[in-house]
Amino acid sequence: MRTEAVVDLAAIAANVATLKATTAAEVMAVVKADGYGHGLLPSARAALAGGASWLGVAMLEEALALRAAGITEPVLAWLWTPRETEALRDALAAGVDISVSSQQGLDLVVATAAELGTPARVHLKIDTGLSRNGITAAEWPDLLDATAKAVASGVIETTGIWSHLACADSPGHPSIARQVERFGDALDTARSHGVMPELRHLANSAATVTLPQCHFDLVRPGVAIYGLSPVPERGGFGLVPAMTLRTTIANVKRVDKGEGVSYGHQYVTDRETTLALVPVGYADGVPRAATNVAPVSIGGHRYTVSGRVCMDQFVVDLGDAEARAGDEVVLFGPGGNGEPTAQDWADALDTIHYEIVSRVGSRVPRSYTGGAA
């Protein structure tokens, strides 16, 4: 292939096993956003092979795709809107667990479950300080009363109560202790209202590796299962990056000193030099912000993107190094052979590695090693 994202499924399975070894809690592998760009179904299967007992997704469609592929393990979907009535019906019929963050949401789930004649498995989400999804503490008691009534009528089962941390990737941040306390208060209130969940869960990737007090009954690692450290300044935690993004040189030419390179001439050669054309661009997920800053590996040596990243291509100044069309270019990988990592790209672009891997576009074929895709 000219360009491909190579995904090591054995690495995903091993990363899940590494995380599972750190906790007594169950592990929910988060495979939303097409498995953070690694592929929804292959990533899900690899995570289950590594010991995950749950899968987590954002969208109902993602959960339904898992079910359509024959995956029967518990799946939680947590981001849906009142307009998705058919998808909600299909998800409940398929035994997907649904997160509820409002009275309106609970009412819709209850009504849909009643029509189906099958109890819905519900995870109530309490906002403990992230201020995204989740019901407020002020509205929590009323939601609990309605939940208890629905449970008593046999329409729903309270599978979980959960929340999400805002700053777990900054160990010691004061919001962490505050959110843990609020979560504990919410659980106490739930008990007092007769709502007893099977599972309590709070920990994302960062909390899984640094905050054992947040593990409760289940942890929800996402980026960590793909081998990317959720707290890079604390090290790699024994995780192995699963994705390598590579391509081949499309053209090589020698140019004079003073030649402008790519749109806008944001890079100008300072000597006679060799330029290599790399056939990937922002339509493939290479950030335009990589212009003049992002690293690549060619022939075992690191270079920097030279000039503006275009829709389908960018240029690399190789100096006097020898290269020819067809030679391999590694944008990022595990780093074991000196190639840049997704973290290196994130550092260069002042972003996070989540964005680097998850934005690799559909034009880039995925290939899989280390397991059945």
Features:
alpha/beta, 2 domains, TIM Barrel, eight-stranded parallel β-barrel, 373 residues, 23% strand, 11 helices, Lyase, Ornithine Decarboxylase, Chain A, domain 1
Verbal overview:
The radius of gyration is 24 Å and the shape is elongated. Strand 5 (97-100), helix 6 and strand 6 (120-125) form a beta-alpha-beta unit. It is α/β, with parallel strands linked by helices. It is built from eleven helices and 19 strands.
**What is the name of the CATH architecture of the largest domain?**
Alpha-Beta Barrel
Major sheet details: 8 strands, parallel, barrel
End-to-end separation: 18 Å
**Overall SS class:** alpha/beta
Fraction of residues in H or I helices: 25-40%
Count of helical stretches: 11
Shape: elongated
Provide mean pLDDT, rounded: 97
Q: What would the CATH topology of the largest domain be?
A: TIM Barrel
CATH superfamily of the largest domain: Alanine racemase
Whole-number total of structural domains: 2
Radius of gyration of CA atoms, rounded to a whole number:
24 Å
CATH C-level class of the largest domain is Alpha Beta
Spatial strand sequence of the major β-sheet: 2-3-4-5-6-7-8-9
Low-pLDDT residue spans: none
Query: H/E order of the elements?
Result: EHEHHEHEHEHEHEHEHEEEEEEEEEEHHE
Portion of residues in beta strands equals 15-25%
Number of strands: 19
